[in-house]
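S.,

As promised, the zinc ion run. Input:
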Amino acid sequence: MRSWSAPNVPRLPGSGLPLRLYDTAAREVRETRPTGEARMYVCGITPYDATHLGHANTYLAFDLVNRVWRDAGHDVHYTQNATDVDDPLLERAQATGVDWQALAEREIDLYRSDMEALRILPPREYVGVTEIIEEIADLVGRLTERGATYELDGDVYFSVAAAPKFGAVSGYSEERMLELFPERGGDPGREGKRHPLDWLLWRAERAHEPSWPAPFGPGRPGWHVECTAIALRNLGSGFDVAGGGSDLIFPHHEMGASEGHVATGEWPFARAYVHAGMVGLDGEKMSKSKGNLVFVSKLRQTADPMAVRLALLAHHYRSDWEWTPGQLAEAEARLARWRAAFARPSGPDATAVLAGVRERMADDLDAPGALAVIDQWAAEEGDDPAAPGLVRDIADSLLGVAVGVG
Ligand code: 5CA
Ligand code: ZN
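Predicted complex:
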């Protein structure tokens, strides 16, 4: 699929620091150590509704990973999927009387323009599930050859008993897993399953639903295996970061990691599992199924996208937080302060700003700390004529906040 267009990223003097990130699987902050290309897979949207601030916050977090790595001299190989066939998309299409493909196409287009407006760097490969059904079916075939699957009324399941590392990503107890699984697309109670946590790899063809041919019968992929197949195909196993929001820790990333492990015999599938916090509204997680959404496209009608980006950056990527309109007003005020400071003929020496922002961002993406470094510079006077331009480049390159001063 077409990705979206890349914003310009100014090169900064010198080189950034190695990035340390909280790895959910290690349960601590660790240095990322890319060898060769830095490889990152981030779970994309299920395109049945517009991009909300929660999505934007998650993609922004991984955009920061991308920017900090690039500043440290890495070439970044970034892959993202779009879940362009799945239950919620088909249900929404049916309920609203639109063709499911037209719905997916429309929402993906809107998502691309939201990402462009927010200056999120595009993935090198942006892959729709419907584009690679054959590879996904091949992966299901490989898992079957390894004796990890079984059939139930034409559907193909992954047997959790075949996954020696199951639980290593989330660290959750079986009780917690059983609680979360049905809330996040799983079917622990289905009659005939060998274990309640076994998960669907391939759903046999159903009436009025799209399906594709496969050696084990026509149907469509289950959710987790799509990301495993797309990551393996583009990045190989042992890539540096697998990312998404914290609602993907279990089951999605847990099950994907086991699929990758059993299919390749290699562990870990991803060297770090990185998760962004949940953005809420009025006491609940923002979600398409709850309908309590603040859409990026709607905000953009009246707000500067760079203010939206600054409002998100004011929260640490791992924290859960609630959106309030006052945060946008604060971000607009900061943007105005920065704009005025960057337009000055001179300012305080910017060497410490560069070191400070690099240091904050390398420390598990402390964007709020980085904002504070620039705020302080903007509040002081100085006589270095090169400083305003350099600080503007720092904000643009490392934080993705491009401030026009014209
Ligand atoms: N297509 C799957 C991933 S393969 C999916 O989860 N799609 S999604 O549209 O529901 O979510 C897209 C991304 O946004 C995921 O990384 C998800 O973790 C993240 N996300 C969803 N809701 C929120 C929220 N309220 N706050 C922060 N991130 C969120
Ligand atoms: Zn995914």
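The pocket of 5CA (ligand 1) is lined by residues 43-46, 54-55, 57-58, 81, 83, 227, 244-245, 247-248, 276, 278-279, 285-287 (CB under 6 Å). The mean pLDDT is 97.

- D.
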